[in-house]
Fold:
Amino acid sequence: MTNSRVYNFAAGPSVLPLSVLERAGSEITNYRGSGMSVMEMSHRSKVFMDIFQETRDKLRRLMNIPEDYRILFLQTGASGQFSMIPLNLIGKTGKADYAVTGNFSGLACKEAKKYGQISLACDTGGRNHSYIPRQEELKLDNEASYFYYCANNTIYGTEWDYVPETGEVPLICDMSSNILSMPVDVSRFGIIYAGAQKNMAPAGLTVVIIKDSLAGHELPFTPLMMNYRTMIDKDSMYNTPPCWCIYMLGLTLDWVAENGGPEGMEKLKWQRAGMLYDVLDASRLFTCHADKGSRSGMNVTFRTGDEELDAKFVKEAAQAGFVNLKGHRLTGGMRASIYNAMPVEGVEKLCDFIRAFDKQN
Ligand SMILES: *Cc1c(COP(=O)(O)O)cnc(C)c1O
Structure:
């Protein structure tokens, strides 16, 4: 089984740890003596409730989430949070600040404009989102209901290397593509959320970590299912939660814990990314999309500047067992997504391939 697996550099859904898949496989028809699959269980059964609570406790421990924060397991997709956040939070003052540093923060900003007055704290679109602004460059409004940003720009390959300082204004952060890849001081945030399909579990689960006191300012027309208060009061079980994904998240969290927790993940992250950036910087053919100092440790974007040569690279890489390296249409070129579950060995081998390609072309 191991031999036939490729090195999968997909941006999402993406690679999961092999041991997690094997464990899920071994339990798939009979979960620990229950006589059934986790996929077949009532979400109200004791056996599933145990999985649910243990998974939540594991995340709380791993991320050191303070007591006054709730952990929600929702089905909205990360994109559903683009609406849920303004619907629930903007009612406080009617205003919010958005830092637009890529595609997803741009979409979130556009959605929020339906519900209130939005100020751009920054917009890096003028240079095709190739950098992250510094703190001094952010335009802040101290009457904003919240400040919104995306910690890692999956498409452009940039990552914030600091947490913005916004005073009393709650920080709301999309960590879909870098959650659990470094330690985070959760107490600095109002909400951290992430679609699970990049670093945590299969697609279908959205994890929301919310400071309890932030809920309860929803606009009057907020749909029941988009109301944080509904989900907090019902413990994410107002309706059927994404049971299988929650179970898979639990397995991934065990794997993260066994591999040094967020600190261990951060070391591996920069080990992988460092190797790749070094090889690209030393090459004749390749340039990186992101400025030095803004480069992502999760999504490495690069190109040759020649579309035909890029296509040749992607094709030959796939033949050599390195798949899903084609860049997003907004950046062109290539993108190597190297999330937590990407083995260091996969990146070492990709580096060898890049060196060889650089020589031959
Ligand atoms: C993938 C991604 C999204 C979109 O996630 P969906 O679950 O498909 O809605 C949003 N934000 C970031 C940073 C992402 O990487």
Residues 22-258 form a domain with the Aspartate Aminotransferase; domain 2 fold (CATH 3.40.640.10). The pocket of pyridoxal-5'-phosphate is lined by residues 12, 77-79, 104, 150, 154, 174, 176-177, 195, 198 (CB under 6 Å). The mean pLDDT is 97. The two ends are 34 Å apart (CA to CA).
